[in-house]
TrEMBL record:
It is found in: Nucleus. It holds the Pfam family DDE_Tnp_4. The keyword Manganese does not apply. This is Nuclease HARBI1 isoform X2. Residues 188-253 form the DDE Tnp4 domain. Its main location: nucleus. GO terms for cellular component: nucleus. Belongs to the HARBI1 family. It comes from Temnothorax curvispinosus.
Length: 299
């Protein structure tokens, strides 16, 4: 039997495969050590990683030829925004550091960002599927996701931020003229991020729709740009509690100035008053009555 016939498929992390016969050859044999060791050395030299078949040049042959609509559909960002991220990542300290230590098969900044966008933009995408599509190993994809996540976190403070005085004025004008709400500079709502069953205290993560999740509370301006994101509370926690413990609640005086008294606003009461007094067209077409609507008065 040829040595190649003894090879079996490797695991996801592509560890070196040791054929079953190797254990026999390594057994202690006092009768003839030389005869045992000689084939072992030869066999070990023949064993290596299994080369899995993957999609080759998916970015070069497919992605770069996507029309704008298809690119947006697959990556959830326009091509211009995606490649702006790629350019920023390419000159970031994170990418420069790995480039200085990379071997001959360096993963490009383009592949980093596109892998990441595909992974986070498709709820059903698994590590195996994305790794196969972009021609990388599963362990490499995990590293890519970690690197790009770290990079995105460095951008967050400059992208997700409270509005300036001029931006508040713009938002207030829009909400008044287009939506009929006076003194509003932002809108807030919550969402549930689906997660796997946690090892610790899993019941607290079951939301009202009976799946495991964590809360994400987002606040946007009139351009639908995030000005605050608050994530982390277990899915079973009520929205009002999440709001009251969020950073934006603690910073309302900074956002609203003298309109907020020293005791802080009664957000729940204000929200219900706003919802109860909504014009019928807003109640039916623009708003859902069970949504949390935050009215922030300009200072």
């Amino acid at each position: 039997m040829e040595y190649e016939d003894l090879l079996i498929d490797s695991s996801d992390d592509e560890n070196v495969v040791m054929p079953p016969i190797l254990n026999i050859l390594l057994e202690d044999n006092n009768e003839n050590n030389e005869l045992v060791h000689l084939p072992v050395y030869g066999l070990v030299g023949r064993v290596g990683r299994i080369q899995h078949i993957k999609v080759v040049n998916y970015i070069e042959n497919i992605v770069r030829n996507y029309i704008a609509r298809d690119f947006l559909m697959h990556f959830r960002l326009s091509r211009a925004v995606a490649y702006e991220l790629i350019n920023q990542f390419e000159v970031s300290d994170i990418f420069i550091e790995i480039s200085n230590h990379a071997g001959n098969l360096k993963i490009t900044a383009e592949k980093h960002i596109l892998c990441y966008l595909w992974f986070v933009g498709h709820e059903s995408a698994s590590y195996r599927d994305v790794a196969d599509r972009f021609g990388v190993t599963i362990s490499c994809l995990h590293t890519i996701i970690t690197r790009v996540t770290q990079f995105i976190m460095t951008l967050a403070p400059n992208v997700i931020r409270y509005p300036t005085a001029v931006e508040k004025e713009e938002s207030a004008t829009y909400f008044l003229q287009e939506k009929g709400f006076p003194g509003v500079i932002g809108a807030i709502d919550g969402s549930h991020i689906r997660i796997d069953k946690p090892m610790e205290d899993p019941d607290s993560y079951i939301n009202r729709k009976s799946y495991f999740s964590i809360h994400m509370q987002g606040t946007v301006n009139h351009k639908m740009k995030f000005i605050d994101v608050f994530i982390g509370y277990p899915g079973s926690v009520h929205d009002a509690r999440v709001l009251k413990n969020s950073t934006i609640y603690a910073d309302l005086r900074q956002l609203c100035g003298d309109a907020i008294d020293d005791q802080g606003p009664d957000i729940a009461a204000q929200n219900q008053q706003v919802i109860d007094n909504l014009p019928r067209e807003y109640e039916t077409n623009t708003q859902k009555r069970d949504e949390i609507c935050l009215q922030i008065t300009r200072g």
